[in-house]
Structures are given as C-alpha cells and as structure tokens.
Amino acid sequence: MLNQFSRTQLLLGEEAMEKLKNARVAVFGIGGVGGYVCEALARTGVGHFDLIDDDKVCLTNINRQIIATRKTVGRYKTEVMKERMLEINPDIEVTLHQCFFLPETAEDFHFEDYDYVVDAVDTVTAKIELVMKCKETGVPIISSMGAGNKLDASAFQVADIYKTQMCPLAKVMRRELKKRGVKRLKVVYSEEKPISPREDMSISCKSNCICPPGAEHKCTERRAIPGSVAFVPSVAGLIMAGEVVKDLIEK
After folding, report:
1. How far is CA 136 from the centre of its chain?
2. Is 236 within 8 Å of 147 (Cβ atoms)?
3. pTM for the complete prediction?
4. Residue 214's pLDDT is what?
C-alpha cells in the first residue's frame, strides 16, 4: 500500500522497513547534529525513539538547528522535536527524557532496551559514559565528534575513533577510551582544521546572554563559544542517520 515511506521501500525493501519500524533508537543531544539525526530517522521509518536533552531553543540556535524558529524559541528542544516527528509519522512512539545525560544520571536509562544509541552530546564526560554503557550492554553506538568552528561540510568522514585525525575532540576521546580498554567506536568526524572564531563581544553570548532567567545551563558557563553554520552540523547529523539505518537493517 502506498504510504510516506514507499520511495524508501523501493530502495531498502519491505523486510528492512519492518526492521526500522520495530527499532528503538535513543538520541542523546537534540541540537544541531542530533536534530537532523531525528529528522532523517523519522523520515526513514524508524518507529521508536528516546530523546534526551534538557536544553531550550535559543535565538542563536536558529542559524543551524532544524527545530529552531522564532516560534519555538524558549521551548524545550525535546518537545519541539517530538511534535515535528509526529507530524512526519503519527504512528511513531517518542519518549522524552528532560535531562542532560551525565555519569550521575546514567543509571536512570535502560540501555538494554535500545537497538541503537546516537551520541550527539557536547561534553567528553557524557560521551565516555555513553560509550561505556553501550559497551557494557552490547548496544551499538555512533558518536559525533566536533562540528563547531568548521565550514567545509565535505570534510566529514565515518571511521573508527582510533583512525581519526585533525579533530581535537576525537584526540581527547582516543586517549580516554584507550585508558578504559575500549577497542573501537564508530564516529563521524571532520578532517577540517578548526577555525578560530572571531572575538566580537558585541555578538558574544559571554557578554549578551539571552538564556531565560533560572536556566540551569547557560552559554556563559562554557570556556569558549564555538561558531557554527547551517550546512556543517546538519551534514554530520545526516551522515550519522545513514549509518544508523544501514546498521539496523543489516542486523
């Protein structure tokens, strides 16, 4: 029967579409990268999602995040993403976790229930904990490396973490995962040398914070505010989604 996934089924086949429909994917971080992962997986027919983030849409997200518009500023990213995904496919199941994933909250998540984990979070501590939890439970994971301060969307590669180069975040992850005995990790990373953002305090979140009063996490807490554009994190997210789909249908 003709449906919104018919064109996809022409390429993947009925059996693969059934696998995607029954799959449960957890996306940690619903930002510039993670938002596009959710978008692509929902449009490809994945049937079950867990969305994990505690951030709200900020005015400065509009330049690159698929859920960010003037109408969604100030709303929780997970809620906006869920609404968008249900408009694409009303039959999907979306579970929201309104929190930031941290080592101290890791036990709140049942990783054994996931068929795949997408790491699109910003902090090394959270990334490492995600990798260790997936290793412990045998759940496949793909991890996004740095997408900020980049302009060349064609420089992204899919590789094992130990075969990456140029990316500063990947370098830190290699070192920390080696210490923990992790032998492999699929990542999406850029071979572009990071660009140093301009120091313009008139447009810096450091001096012009617009986070809502009482926000638990503010940009001003970060050591540096990275620059970003529409066409780099989106490409990273779409590449990650493609890898997730490929791995799920090959299981």
Report:
1. 21
2. yes
3. 0.94
4. 54
Predicted pLDDT at 201: 60
Q: Which residues of the chain have pLDDT under 70?
A: 200-223
Q: Quote the pLDDT of residue 57.
A: 96
Tell me how far apart the alpha carbons of residues 78 and 88 are, in angstroms, rounded to a whole number: 15
Nearest to 170 by CA among 200, 137, 195, 145: 145
Locate 111 and state its tokens: 């990783």
Per-residue pLDDT reduced to its tens digit, 5-15: 999 999 999 99
